[in-house]
Write a structure and sequence with these properties.
Helix content is 43%, strand content 22%. By secondary structure, it is an alpha/beta fold. It folds into 2 domains: 1-112 and 302-359, Rossmann fold; 122-300, Glutathione S-transferase Yfyf (Class Pi), Chain A, domain 2 (Up-down Bundle), CATH 1.20.1050. The strands form 3 sheets. Strands 2-1-4-5-6-7 form a 6-stranded antiparallel β-sheet, covered by helices on one side. Strands 8-12-13-3-14 form a 5-stranded parallel β-sheet, with helices on both faces.
C-alpha cells in the first residue's frame, strides 16, 4: 500500500500542489521554510483527519482561504482507492472513492502513518497528557473499537466531574448515580488500560534492539504507569469509591486511565529528566521504528513512514544505519535541505522532489 498521487488545495503555503508517480522512496528537497514538512503533514492529515502540528486543525488553512482540501490516490495492490479530505469552517468532510462518509471514524486510517519529526520530542519532554495522546493516536490506527471506548470513557468522566461539583454544593444529593458512573468507568477503564498495556509491551519487544544499533551498550524500555494496571473491575471500582470524598472536595475525577503516563527508562533513569537531548532524539527515533515493527510484525500492516528533517538530527553513521535497514515494502518520505546528506545509491532509486518558491 502506498500513496501514488497527492493533490493539495489551500494547504499551508500551497494554493495548489500536485505530486504524482510517487515511489516507495521519496526524497523531498528544498530550503528551510519552503514547505517540505507541509507535504508530510498533509499525508498525515489525510490518514488521521488531524494535524500533528497543533491542537487547532484550522492552522493548515492557507491565509484567507475558506477551505483546505487533500486528495490522495492510494495504491492498494490491485486497484486505487481515492481519498478526499476537506476542512472548512463548516467542519470536516471526507470521501472514499467519491462516497461521502458520515463519520470521521469511517475515514481515518485507510492507510497507517508513522511520523518522525523533531517536534515529536515533546512526547518525551512534555506532560503526561502529551504521552497519552501519543498512545491514543497509535491505538486509534490499529483498533477501531478503542476510539469508541475512549470517547465513551471521556464522556463518563465529564458527566462525573459535573456531578461531583453538584455534590460539593449539596452533600445530601443521592450517591446512586455516582455508583452507576463509577461502575461504568471501572469497566471501560479496565479495557482501555489492558489495550494500552498490551501495546506498550509490543513496543518493548523491539525498542531495546533498535536503540542498541545507535548505542550498543545502552538499555532502554518503556514503563506504562496506570492506576488501573494489574487490577480487575471489582478492585478498580473499590478504588474509585475509596477516593470519592476527596474527589467531591476537588470537584474532579482524579482516579482513572485519563491520568495514565508512560516513561522512557534509559539506563535505569527517566529519560525526560536525565538523558541529553541527543539521547532523547535517538530514543524517539527508536520508538518510531518500534511502531513500524509492531505494525508490520504484529498487525501485518504496511504503514507509510514520514521522516522529517532526519538528517539534521543524526550523524552520518546513524543516518546510514536507518536507511540501510528500511523495509523495502514500506513507502518512505524523507525531507532534507541537502541531497548530499543522502547516500548516492539511495538517491538513485528514489523519487526526488525539488520544491522551489514557485510551488
Amino acid at each position: 500500500m502506498y500513496v501514488k498521487k497527492l493533490e493539495l488545495t489551500n494547504f499551508r503555503n500551497y494554493e495548489k500542489l500536485k505530486l504524482d508517480n510517487l515511489k516507495d522512496l521519496n526524497i523531498i528537497i528544498g530550503d528551510n521554510g519552503i514547505g517540505k514538512t507541509s507535504v508530510l503533514e498533509s499525508i498525515y492529515v489525510c490518514s488521521l483527519a488531524r494535524t500533528f502540528k497543533s491542537n487547532d486543525d484550522y492552522v493548515i488553512l492557507k491565509n484567507n482561504s475558506d477551505f483546505v482540501k487533500i486528495k490522495i490516490d492510494l495504491d492498494i495492490g490491485d486497484k486505487l482507492k481515492k481519498l478526499d479530505f476537506t476542512l472548512s469552517f463548516k467542519g470536516k468532510k471526507t470521501k472514499i472513492n467519491n462516497n461521502l462518509k458520515k463519520k470521521i471514524s469511517d475515514f481515518i486510517s485507510q492507510y497507517k502513518v508513522i511520523l518522525f519529526s523533531p517536534d515529536e520530542l515533546r512526547i518525551i519532554k512534555e506532560s503526561p497528557n502529551t504521552r497519552r495522546n501519543y498512545l491514543n493516536i497509535c491505538l486509534s490506527q490499529i483498533n477501531k473499537s478503542y476510539i469508541k471506548l475512549l470517547n465513551d470513557y471521556n464522556t463518563l468522566i465529564k458527566n462525573k466531574n459535573d456531578y461531583l461539583k453538584k455534590l460539593y454544593i449539596n452533600s445530601n444529593m443521592d450517591l446512586v448515580y455516582l455508583d452507576v458512573l463509577d461502575s461504568k468507568i471501572s469497566d471501560l477503564g479496565y479495557e482501555i488500560c489492558k489495550i494500552r498495556d498490551e501495546y506498550v509491551q509490543k513496543l518493548n519487544k523491539y525498542i531495546k534492539k533498535i536503540f542498541r544499533k545507535f548505542r550498543k551498550d545502552d538499555d532502554i524500555y518503556i514503563r506504562y504507569n496506570s492506576q488501573f494496571l494489574k487490577k480487575n473491575n471489582e478492585e478498580i471500582f473499590k478504588m474509585l469509591v475509596k477516593n470519592r470524598n476527596s474527589e467531591i472536595m476537588l470537584g474532579l475525577t482524579k482516579t482513572g486511565v485519563h491520568r495514565d503516563d508512560i516513561e522512557f527508562i534509559h539506563n535505569s533513569n527517566n529519560a525526560k529528566e536525565y538523558s541529553s537531548q541527543g539521547i532523547q532524539k535517538l530514543i524517539l527515533l527508536s520508538l518510531k521504528l518500534s511502531e513500524l515493527e509492531v505494525l508490520v510484525n504484529d498487525y501485518y500492516e504496511e504503514p507509510i513512514l514520514l521522516l522529517d528533517d532526519l538528517f539534521s538530527e543524526l550523524d552520518s553513521i546513524n543516518q546510514n544505519s536507518i536507511l540501510n535497514n528500511l523495509n523495502k515494502n514500506i513507502q518512505v518520505f524523507i525531507t532534507t535541505t541537502d541531497i548530499n546528506n543522502i547516500k548516492p545509491s539511495m538517491v538513485k532509486r528514489a523519487n526526488v522532489i525539488e520544491l522551489s518558491r514557485r510551488d
